[in-house]
Every structure is written in structure tokens, then in C-alpha cells.
């Protein structure tokens, strides 16, 4: 299969259009990835009859757990993105190839996740105070879902390789196919066979396996330095070290972020099944919309990574400005969406009036804080593109996680309401945004590298 000329120009061309060409497919990819969870939630709510709300609560109780596991490895895959992009920008095709082959094998870590997850599934859910009527379905869903982890990780590493090489469309198209397949399988497993939440988890596993195989076949026939040759599949220590040094801090940042949200989920669970179902519905909408903002962070990382490799530091700075500008427009649209259409969308997921009321409360509290998220995600992506992954990761972990742990431990017991829990989101995101801006001003990555290059010359 011959490779077509890149539509995305990392090193030349108009940044506004090229960033959009990259960010929109990445956003749609993330949205389609989250659509799998949304489809599961809708199908369970609609097809399980009177047990639909309990089924939704069971899936919602697992959302933060599955997110924690996935974001850890997706964060590491950002190391693949930066490593491959920088090598391609510098014209070092051999280094790009070694990093790509190493990344494919890193997906085998999913096997360890399966074993660990099967052992701790029930104790973790009990620790999170999942109500007794919800616990059996929640445990079953988690255990079956985790069987698909190798496929989920392989897909994300494959997508990182393709995006670094300029192909942001194929991962999106693969997930589009996955979403359609997920609907069909959910209708079959839940609606026809009556397998409930287990059927939903099986459908998700099968869909990820299908698209992981699809992307692997594409990489085998790619006309590019990152084409995968099965005979060359081995772990290159230098590539692995670089990928982990860049990606692990980002992965740990996301994982600890999820741990903080798991603590919050435990507090939400203590408020009952209706609040759990409402929060689950709201989170699915948030994940879909947040993907649009996060795509500009990923675009910033990839564009900066390639231009850093080519030592085009002026274009690196312009990339951050463009990502902030386009991200601001996206954030404004998302806030308007939550305010004016939030109730209607929640009603489509679950018509229960209490679920809609609590879900809308969540949306109206969290969506305005997306303005803060947009800024710190774009700046973090900019720093990661330079290989500076640890400083923004540490900052985010200390600020956001510290504040959320404190809030649930001290503030929530004094005011035991859903709104109290929700208030910590804008507070923590706003403070973290300010800290990341200060971090950027302190690090000055382009000035640091220019001085380094001057001394080397």
C-alpha cells in the first residue's frame, strides 16, 4: 500500500490550518474512543429495562478506575509521539524506526494489567464504597473489560506512531469503525442475549482488538521510516529510555490525576445510585468534549517535537500561540453547549428527572473551568514537545491532586452535598493553570536550547 504525501506540514506552511488538520482528527479520535463508553452507558440505560440505572451506576463506578489504567499508558505513548517526531524532524530515520518497533512491544504490558486487575477488582470497588446493589455488576464489568487491555494499549501506541508521522486520520477512521461495531455488538449482546454489563465489556474488548489489528496491518505496509517489519520487532534500550523519560511523567501525571478523581468518585458513591448514574452520564459528555481541548495539547506536542528536532525554535513558539488561540475558541463553544444543551443531552442518556438534574449541575460547574484546562494543557504539551515532561507533571500532581484530596477529606464531610464535590473542579483547575503559566516563564525552553546550540557551535 503506497503512502500518500503528507497533508500535514509540521516544519513549513500555515500553522493555523496545519494545526487544525492535525487537531481535528485527533479530537475526533478521542471523541470516538470515549464514544465507546458513552454507547455502553446509553445501551445499558435503554436496553436493561428497570435495571438500567443500576447498570449505568456499575459502569460509572468503574470509569475512573479504567481511566487511571488507560491514561497511564496513553501518557507513555506520548513519549513515543515526541521521540518519533523529533527523530523525523532531525532526519534520523533509523532512530524513528527503532522507537516505533520498541513502542509496539511496549503494548505487552497490558498482560500484566490483566493479572493485577483480576486480583484487585473487587477489593478496589469495595474500597470505593460502591453500593451493595451495584457491586456485583461493577466487579463483572471491570474484570471482563480488563481482558482487552493489550489491544487497547497496542492501538494507542500505533496511533502515536502514525500521528508523529503525520497521519492523524487513520486512528480516527479506525475508531469510527469501532463505534459502529460497538453499537451492533451492544445491541446483540445486551438487547438480544441479555448479557447486561458483561456484554457491554465484551463488545468493547472485541472492538479494540479489531482496530489494533487494522492499524498494525497499515503499519506493515506504510511507505515511511516508521514502517513496521516483524523481523525487527525488538526493544531498543535507548529508544525505550527516551520514550519512558518523556512519557512516564505524563502517564503518572494522568494516573495520579485519575487517583484524585477516584477519591472523588468514592465521595459521589456515598450519595447513592441516582447521583452515581447522573455523574456517570455527565462524565461521558465531559470526556467527549474535553477531547477537543486536549487535541490542541497533542498537536502542540507533535509540532514542537518535529520543529525542535529541526531546531526551528521560532516555529515552536508560534505553535503554542496558535494552539492557545484555537483552543480558546473551542472552550467558548463547549461552555455554551453545556449551558444551553446539557439538559437535553442528559435526557437522551437517561430520562430520569433526578439523573438529569444532578448531571446538569455537574456540567454547569465543570464546563466553565475548561478555560483553565485549555491553557495549562496547551502549555504542558508545548513543554513535553521539548522533552520537558516532568515539571508540568509534578506541578499538576501536587496542585490538583493535593487540593482534591484535601477537599474530600476536610470540606466535603462538613457539607455533604453533590455541589460541594463539584466545586473543587474549577478551584483546582484554576490554581493549576496559574502555576503552569509561572512554570513556562521560569523554564523558557526555546531560550535555553538556543543558548545550548550556540555554545555547541
From TrEMBL:
Family from the record: Belongs to the multi antimicrobial extrusion (MATE) (TC 2.A.66.1) family.
Alphabetical list of Pfam families matching this protein: MatE
Keyword Coiled coil appears in the UniProt entry: no
Protein name (record): Probable multidrug resistance protein NorM
GO molecular function (one): xenobiotic transmembrane transporter activity
Keywords on record: Antiport, Cell membrane, Ion transport, Membrane, Transmembrane, Transmembrane helix, Transport
Annotated organism of origin: Tractidigestivibacter scatoligenes
Compartments it resides in: Cell membrane
Residues passing through the membrane, by range: 65-91, 103-128, 140-162, 174-195, 201-220, 321-340, 360-379, 391-412, 424-443
NCBIfam families (UniProt xref): matE
InterPro entries: MATE_fam (IPR002528), MATE_MdtK (IPR050222), MdtK-like (IPR048279)
